[in-house]
Amino acid sequence: MGRERGWILDAYVNGTEAVVWIKTEGGRALRLRDQYAPFFHVLCSPGCEEGIAYQISECPEVRRVCAEELIPSFGDRARQMLKVETWGLHLRRLAFAAKRIPGVEAVYNLPLSHVQRYLFTRLRAEPTSRVEADFDGDRLLAVRKLDDEEGLAPPPFSLAAFAPRMERRGGRWELRSVRCTSCGYEASGGEAHVLESFFDHLASEDPDLVLIPDLDRRFYPSIQWLSKEEGVPLRLGRCGDPYKRLQGSAAGRVFLGSVFYGFSADRWGIAGLVERSRFAFATMGQATRWLSNRAIDSRTSFELISKGHAVPEEDYRECARPLGELAARDRGGITFTPVPGMLYENVAALDFDSQYPSLILRDGISYESPYGSGGSTGDAGAPCAGDGRGKPILGSVIEEWLRRRLALKRLRRTLAEGTDERRFCEERISAIKMILVTIYGVSGCCRNRFGNPVVFEEINRRSREAMVAAKRIADAKGFRVIYADVDSIFVTRRGASISEYADLAGTIGSETGLSISIDRHFKFLAFPRLRRDPSSSALKRYFGVTYDGEVVARGIEMRRGDMPGVVRRFQEGLIREVFSCRDSEEVLSLGVCRGRVLLRRALREISAGMPCKEGLVVRRRLGKDPGSYKVSTAERSAALQLLALGKGASPGEEVEFVRSSASHQNPLCRVRIPDLFSGNFDRAYYGRLLTEAARVVFESIGAGEVADRQQASLVQWMG
Questions:
Q1: What are the structural domains, with CATH classification, of the chain?
Q2: pTM
Q3: Residues 345-368 pLDDT 10s
């Protein structure tokens, strides 16, 4: 008998037993075995249960059949179902056979993976959770969750990151070298030697988590083929358990996927990964392979099972509705457009804290109660306080994580910039934010097993009501609303102090029942013009500087990932330089003059060829296979150059290149990938990018004549 405290590193199913790995407080990786019986549920017509149970139990692959009371769908009462436990893992074949038995209405809990069944119904502790485990030898006896919410640092999982170099030859990816970016180790030479060296290094470093770019599509298929051809054993894990490719489980070692939504792929990002893994009730390998809809489905399924529901194969509901109702309800969020070409002073951005999740909780909006717990009825559903066993399902999914995000945001204000604690806190906040935002986004999606479009529409409707109420309150208190976008509202009043803006936020919060706070306090703020209609503003685009000196921008060049670094840095520096003034009058005189000087200097540096290669690199994502493009785009040309060097260029990947000659007749000569870059670049092209970035800034604050846009360039206007 033994007892250890630690964190759940991984879990997977081997046949009819489950394996749980725990990283102990002493740093040991502990492997424990547990019982597991694959199962699904069968709903029978009344009076047919006994006969169907007998037919199913006659199958030699069935371990046992027993009756359970479960709720088949929202709004239904509990009904008797047959729980079918099997000896093997081939549930779908047995379930499809069961469906053909007369009297069988439906099959439930079939969509769950085996590890989900084990985690949801037996272990009942999320992977990465801190636990206390009792065991006898290697047999797990009991697991108790321990509270670790107060800590910001993630569990002490060690991480090793590798960068393999692979070349496409003879229809497959050949392994040329592997470099460990964590410690600098590198192996090169023949493929078999590289593979053996990689396995040896993996065993000596013994990491808990392994990060390899494009693992599932290239690296693993390559080493699997190589292992078979060269007779090199696959030594990925800490023991002989088989590798679980779909979840990256390698016998006590987790090979992470490529989905890092809201958190980074490094040691700090483990904190965000922990939040995503715990929310999804999934292993870390699954959490980095599943898109958000799958993660939300997993958590929703766990909540349903906890409330006595059975998980259906598909329960998406979209009833036929009058066209007028669709037009009236399906409107999305609300936006108040700003006046472009003006410089605003002393602006407060008030942000509803997690507005959509807060609305869901406040009003009881859920799949089973789309109009809320106190709303009106409609053709698509009726109001309902929940499932008869507590709060509505969406509320159960959201509540804990909304509370946690708001608590972490309050804690972040007390943490010093640049500290590990601050970074861990930000990674956790960002990961949870992505989860909460996506829950709203998929609430009415047909890809959501439980989706109901009325839920999505109702959340938007109540969001619009809250924004209109916020504007009404601001107007009544003498503030001017200059811009609003879905869940944030930008207000200004001459001479208003930060405390007066805070009082306004408090009044809005008390009247709407939603938490709202000051996100940023801008000293200066401006909105770019719409390129094709200078009299209109470009939505979701603005830039400014706060009273703390922070440059904040959205939608302009300095925030675009496909812009060269030299342009992004220039525009940020230009905004900082122009806005480093006392008031708007000084900005439009002294600030603009300093901005002109900065632009001239940047253009001279471009003409002199001074920017380094890294500052000139443009990044674009391949939308399709390079051979499928009908037009010779820059990213296609870069991809073809990569392929010519034996490197990869697949749809969905980013390619890097430098504009060498934008007007060259041969499209392949217009760009150069970094490996082929010799130092020559298209100076006129990069000069135009700088000029356009400056134009956006100057015209947005009213320092340029839009009417002369077609006649004179910005450089000419500057004299």
A1: 39-121 (3.30.70), 329-526 (3.90.1600.10), 551-611+686-718 (no CATH), 613-680 (3.40.1820.20)
A2: 0.85
A3: 999 999 998 899 999 999 999 988
